[in-house]
Amino acid sequence: MRPVFVALLLLVATAPALAQAPRIERIDLVDHGIYESELTRRIEDPKSVGGSRSGVKMIKFKQKASTIQAQKGLQFGLRYFVVGEPKDAQVKLRFVTRFPSPGMRDAASGITSDRNEYVGAAKIGGADFLGYSFDYDWELVPGAWTFEIWDGDRKLLAHPFTVVIP
Predict the structure, then answer these.
(1) What's the rounded Cα separation, in Å, for the pair 122 and 86?
(2) What is the pLDDT of residue 53?
(3) What pLDDT digit, counting tens, does each position of 131-153 carry?
(4) ω into 102 cis (within 30 of 0)
(5) Do residues 78 and 31 lie in contact, with contact meaning Cβ atoms separated by under 8 Å?
(6) Which of 43, 76, 132, 141 has a CB 3.0–4.6 Å from the CB of 53, allowing a cystine?
(7) Quick count: other Cβ atoms within 10 Å of Cβ 156?
(8) Is residue 17 part of a domain?
(9) Can you name the residues that pair with 28 across neighbouring β-strands?
């Protein structure tokens, strides 16, 4: 009877660990276009064009749009919903913003990049925001922009925008 008890105890002890492994089924697009938000912090990131990324809060959807006017101060992007199990589990995703060819040239460093890319956290069952704000004149690059969300090597979402010079 004792070996059965030990086996049962091991099964019961490992079941929650197996059941709790986060699994992302898909990403649903909630909306896309022009937004307003409040800057909360600058995140130093030498891999990003300009050397940093922005943390934002109070994100407000202003207007649905796929064509974006290149204007300093304008923020655009998308809100998305992570679908999977278990609800409220934190997952790591890779966020990529692809710029039109030949890329974006950072005026301070002189480096030209074809994308911004970083890894961040998201919550299963929660909506979040991926966006870009035109803070400098050199960021006003017309053409096809694409926002992507990846889980490892699996692309979960790709959404195009066309940036135009007014």
Answers:
(1) 13
(2) 54
(3) 999 989 999 999 999 999 999 99
(4) yes
(5) yes
(6) 43
(7) 19
(8) no
(9) 81
pTM: predicted TM-score of the whole model, two decimal places: 0.81
Q: Which residues pair with 126 in a beta bridge?
A: none
Q: Distance between CA atoms of 75 and 59, rounded to whole angstroms?
A: 10
Q: Name the residue among 126, 98, 128 with its Cα closest to residue 114.
A: 98
* Parent domain of 75: 22-164
| Number of structural domains found in the chain | 1
CB-CB contact of 76 with 67 (8 Å) = no
Distances (CA, A) of 79 to 58, 102, 109, 138: 13, 27, 31, 25
Of 133, 131, 138, 97, residue with least CA distance to 114:
97
Which is it for the CA torsion 113, 70, 135, 144, positive or negative? negative
20: enclosing H helix or E strand: none
- Hey, what are 121's tokens? 């956290």
